[in-house]
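User: Quick sanity check before I run a bigger batch. Here is a single chain. Can you write out its predicted 3D structure?
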Amino acid sequence: MDHVANHAGHHTGHDPGAHAGHDAGPERGADGMDSGHGHRGGMSMAEMVADMRRRFLVALIFSIPIFVYSPIATEVFGLRPAAPFGVRTDVLSLLLSLPVVLYSSAVFFRGAVAALRNRTLDMMVLVATSIGVGWTYSVLTVLSLPGEHFFEAITLLAAFVLFGHWMEMSARAGASDAVRALLDLAPPMAVVIRDGVPVEVPTSDVHVGHLLLIRPGSRVPVDAVVEAGESSVDESMITGESLPVTKRPGDELIGGTINNEGALRARATKVGSDTALAQIVDLVRVAQDSKAPAQRLADRAAFWLVLVALGGGLLTFGVWFVLSDVSFATALQFAITVVVIACPDALGLATPTAIMVGTGMGAKRGILFKDAGALEQASALTTIVFDKTGTLTIGEPRVAEIRADGVPEDELLRLAAAVEHESEHPLARAIVAAAAERDIQAPSAAAFHAVAGAGAVAEVEGRRVSVGSRRLLAQEGCPWTGGRRRGGAPGGRANGGLRGRRWASRGRSGPGRHRPPHRQGSRVAASDRGRGGGDADRRQSGHRRARGC
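Assistant: Done. Predicted structure follows.
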């Protein structure tokens, strides 16, 4: 697979390969120096795609008039256009074929030379042989040799094969985007605490044992262990977990994940190629470079097809020239025909392209294949068993149901949305979205305070409203009792519950103030698990009820 240059640090000037543990370098072809496509070394993937596209377009543009003036167009379609300037049609075809042979097909000849130097036979050898022999024979027919030329056949063959290689290179470029997206997860810079002072350094300078400061909203630079602080971390890009995971001292952090709320101090444990992110990138690259059984079979077939094509051409020439009374020119024409048509280049393109596209699309969706063989075997799967609950979601929480006892649903949602409008937590966005769907205008919240790993507290219309975990409500003096009521609802307190996320409000009733409910309270159900409530909270299902406290 290609090495991606400047994958996350192109704006910072540091070694971009270091933060993911890979060597940086020019974005190269998938097969080393020339990618097996006859390109010169040092070309980037984008340059290779553009170069192959140009060669294909040149071959296509010149192939059309060559075909129009060809003998087959005359015999099959009855086309007999007059050549311009009184030039013979075969001479015109020869002139038009020069850009195709000398420019467009140059990649085939370079690839064939490289293959022969490596003492192997591949599709490049077969294509180059077909084009070279066919064009040479056609030039001889234009000069004096009896027979029909193959200019239209070789130019159309070049155009078709170039189109296939262009598609393959485009697929490889698209697959490399998946690797680049993974590499971009690692931030180019990290904050290291030295002598108690935060210092921003390139991620490549972070070593095992360094104390890191991970601010809210920033990405974790390398794998680490939390030593101080509490926050929720978005690990969806690595683990697929749709909701942030609460991190406390002693918990592990994965490089490339996002710290949501509180500041964390963490000790680096793995850097460079040892990080989980770097290993995932390696896994994707190995899968894209590996060969499926079908591809290995196609490679072996390509080797033998070269021998069959060349041997078949020689045998055809020998049989017709020695065992029959046809002329040398006719026997040579039959031999060239066999060589030209024995070029199933699609056999060598279909499987590699499918593997590159399949592994690339899988990586973008968080699906990693161990190797190409696993990808091929996946086509035979009939049943998939998942051993972890709660991960088969749409990727974001949504409010699925609201139940309110003694308080209007819209009022309950209005108060919760007022607080959550100030938060960036996924559950907060779900509640705000639910209020917007009902055209509920949430009031402005004041004195908003996000409690790391627990929820949020704010002042709404003169009342203190808390939305979050069981622990937060307990801290606010309104402990969660699992549906059992503790006392009445003094002071005009109102409580509500979310699945894994609860809210409580309290304030004084009076003129100009909204009178909170004094009944049994209310409950709200939201799809997905909550934040900061611990494993027990996250494992609970159904709706949780909060009553007045």
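Residues 20 and 203 are 9 Å apart (CA to CA).

User: Great, the batch can go ahead then.
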